[in-house]
């Protein structure tokens, strides 16, 4: 993964600090064109990964990228699914099973089975989950999606009810069908790492809130710092600025000082903010050692430890 | 061992409560109950919860200390009554009871049995609204003379809708679902209004229920308020609640994210002019997060009330006050629409008789 990833909260009226700012952003980004303009600022600043929800507007952005392949030669999407409000609203309006029926693709065998009277209840969860994932991934057809994330509301719900196997189902399907790495967005990092381990997912990609203010770091900042030191996983840090609660340099300095933070995702709406944030992350990210050098050192160290363990045993 | 808890109703709120309760170290979710066999099948296969289709059976057989009720509103009173008979602590979704007198009686019953009865008005656990309550109650804003409370969001955007939320008899509609929050925030921050007037509760898309509710609130202090709730407003990404309070020494505007305070004369730590505090400063961290700190905070509070007998911040009693205001709004709205219909009837018969009078006079004048 690249060190710097571009997020999409600003495009969809998500602002954790102010409803007025969120509304102003929703007004500014009411069409895909205005989003593409900002994405282009990011591409010009050599930020080539767009970590985005599977919102209908993102489908338009994906179409634009497909049509302009040369301009977006190095561009990659990290889809984050599902776009939760679509499901939540459908569930409030129709109830859980009918919501699922509404969201599943209308054409194809499932729809035919349902029309034929087969109930959703009699189908297996794995098959259903794969169909839902495929429905969400459709918009990225023909584009590079090397990492596919499960959104935090779903990750954390599954974590809460203790349905660990669901993580395995997601990871398997993403690996097999899309030849991509599964990722998990969470607001509950320490317990999620345990659940992923129980589900047999090794060295998982996890995206979570990390900031100096300890904002939205469930269980406390020290629990997060502790797992960063002791557990093996690939971390994407989000909300590093804590919605503006911490000055940018101080915020990024903190995140860059933590071990095992592989990437940082941030969202911004102006060219100046994008350029400045990218510059700060580059400047504060161990300038003399490249990421690949760090990971090859890690690899060598792991091999060394394994050899020692063999000798000892 | 934690509080042995059963959960009834696995809809949108129920499933979220299940995840939060199951993650809480002080709670052992031992049983779940839902009328939908398909959902139970999925849970039976993939989780360790004991699953029931009948709440009576679960309350009788599961050996519980507490129950979380997140079923359609109409069933709350009956399920609470059954649970109290078994001496259980109860967390019930909002609104509490469709009949406020039933709510008051159940609050008294819970108190006499020494059981905790809490209702899921989660905005009482949002940092900005808690701070607003402190500011108002401590007199920073002086004498309060007006409060505006609003709840807007995108729930019903077309005529279809198959769930209980679209049925008045089940406790569906914007008044029960959205306006109840706006009312409860006022009750929490200031006090419950003793009367309402000029209430309009009308449909935009729904066939059987109201989609928007507006009203004037009257408080014993002489202050007035305006209520505005609309669940068919998709200019908001999700439910947005906001309260604006005017007092003799300034004003406060609070939503889930931000609290803006304007102070006329310096008081306590507030200098003259504007102050802004937002959720990043005002939110207490939680151990498990799903959809918002407040959902975990309210269940954590429930546990602390059971264990430490803390005073409940969103009790059956305060929820019954909110039920009473909801009932006043409903009856004021129907009285008002009956009056308007009567006026319209009178106006149209007046128009008819005027028409004939004019016609007659024209004919007469021609002759």
TrEMBL record, chain A:
It comes from the Bacteria. This is Uncharacterized protein. The lineage of its organism: Bacteria, Pseudomonadati, Pseudomonadota, Alphaproteobacteria, Hyphomicrobiales.
From TrEMBL, chain B:
The keyword Ribosomal protein does not apply. Residues 129-252 form the GFO/IDH/MocA-like oxidoreductase domain. The keyword Oxidoreductase applies. Gene3D superfamilies: Dihydrodipicolinate Reductase, domain 2, NAD(P)-binding Rossmann-like Domain. It comes from the Bacteria. SUPFAM superfamilies: Glyceraldehyde-3-phosphate dehydrogenase-like, C-terminal domain, NAD(P)-binding Rossmann-fold domains. Pfam families: GFO_IDH_MocA, GFO_IDH_MocA_C3. Keywords: Oxidoreductase. Residues 3-121 form the Gfo/Idh/MocA-like oxidoreductase N-terminal domain. This is Gfo/Idh/MocA family oxidoreductase.
